[in-house]
Amino acid sequence: MSELIEGFLGKSVEGKKSRLPAKLDYLQSATGLFLGLFMWCHMIFVSTILVSDKFFNQVVDFLEGSMFFEPKPIVTSVIVTLVFAIFFIHALLGMRKLPINFRQWQAYKTHMGLIKHGDTTMWYIQATTGFIMFFFGSAHLIMMIFKADEISALHVAYRVVSQNMWIFYIILLLAVELHGGIGLYRLCVKWGWFEGENAKESRKKLAKVKWALTAFWLALGLITLLAYAKLGLANDGKPVPPKTHASLIIKSDKVGM
Ligand code: HEM
Fold first, then answer.
1. Domains of the chain: which residue ranges?
2. At 150, is the secondary structure helix, strand, or coil?
3. Best substitution site from 61, 140, 146, 226 to test ligand 1's pocket, by max atoms within 8 Å of Cβ?
4. CATH of domain 2-254
5. Spacing, Cα 45 to ligand 1 middle (Å)
6. Which of 34, 82, 99, 149 could in theory staple to 104 by disulfide, Cβ–Cβ 3.0 to 4.6 A?
7. Ligand 1 center–CA 132 separation, angstroms
8. Which of 62, 132, 144, 214 gets mutated to test ligand 1 (max ligand atoms within 8 A of its CB)?
9. Could you tell me the pLDDT band of residue 233, with boundaries at 50, 70 and 90?
10. pLDDT (tens digit per residue) in 147-181
11. What separation in angstroms does the CA of 96 have from each of 3, 99, 101, 144, 183?
12. Residue 102, C-beta contacts closer than 8 angstroms, at least 6 positions apart
């Protein structure tokens, strides 16, 4: 905790200038990069329902170790716990930068209104979506840790339709894609990645790529949600029987059940 305070103040307890803020910034960038790239893989994984529900179940099985043993949901629980730890560290580090009282918040908003600079407005969006994700992202990850045996196309479809989780996922999707897109853009600007001869020009190009990517992931996410909704509605939103783990569903398909 004292390290976080030192990172926030930029001074050690003895009043010496600290290197900690720079180190924490580095850790925030690294965890952000990991989560950004992870989300790209995650969106592709979830969207495999667009191929077929059987394919989605096979992917779940594969990620749960079907190459080596009988697929085990505990594998998912362990992976999600690791991702959650990184997510939590990233969020804690991000909190250092949020305005800590109403006065600071007002000063920031006035400043943003006065200078009307794109990157300053982006920071506002990033802080707000980060706040939303702290709650929605944590809830999603905790659910995945404890309900890892309920990841199959039918279970997802049931959650989306019958438990009205589509509302939850639309909010989370918007927050994640805006936050992740801006985050990756800011990483490029901060560390000078893809910076050509003319920094101003490359920043403009980066911003365009960023919006294109955000639009792409948002569209894919919404189409994916629609596919789960269609499957859930076709199933009349009926509860799926307990213990229908993806691997069992695939097996029961084979024996024509
Ligand atoms: C290893 C960790 C994770 C696993 C196994 C996982 C799994 C899943 C699954 C199975 C779904 C389908 C919906 C459902 O089952 O209820 C889903 C959807 C979603 N997840 Fe995750 N998730 C993980 C991490 C994350 C993280 C870190 C975030 C961002 C904070 C996130 C954001 C989302 C969003 C936005 C959707 C909706 C996608 C769409 O609309 O197409 N997930 N996730």
1. 2-254
2. helix
3. 140
4. 1.20.1300.10
5. 9
6. 99
7. 15
8. 144
9. very high
10. 999 999 999 999 999 899 999 999 999 999 999 99
11. 11, 8, 12, 28, 16
12. none
Question: Is residue 256's pLDDT more than 50?
Answer: no
Structure tokens at 141: 């990850």
Query: At 192, is the secondary structure helix, strand, or coil?
Result: coil
A 10 A CB-CB count for 67 gives 8
Please tell me the residue having the least CA distance from ligand 1 atom 35. Answer: 173
Q: Percent of the chain at pLDDT above 70?
A: 87
Band of pLDDT at residue 2, cut at 50, 70 and 90: low
Which residue pairs from 22-28 have beta carbons closer than 8 angstroms and sit at least 24 positions apart in sequence? 24/93, 24/96, 27/89, 27/93, 28/90, 28/93, 28/94
For residue 186, is pLDDT > 90? Answer: yes
Cα 80 to ligand 1 centre (Å): 10
Could you give phi then psi for residue 100, rounded to 5 degrees? -100, -5
**C-alpha 12 to ligand 1 mean position (Å):** 39
Name the closest-CA residue to atom 10, ligand 1: 151
Provide the residue type at 227 as one letter. Answer: A
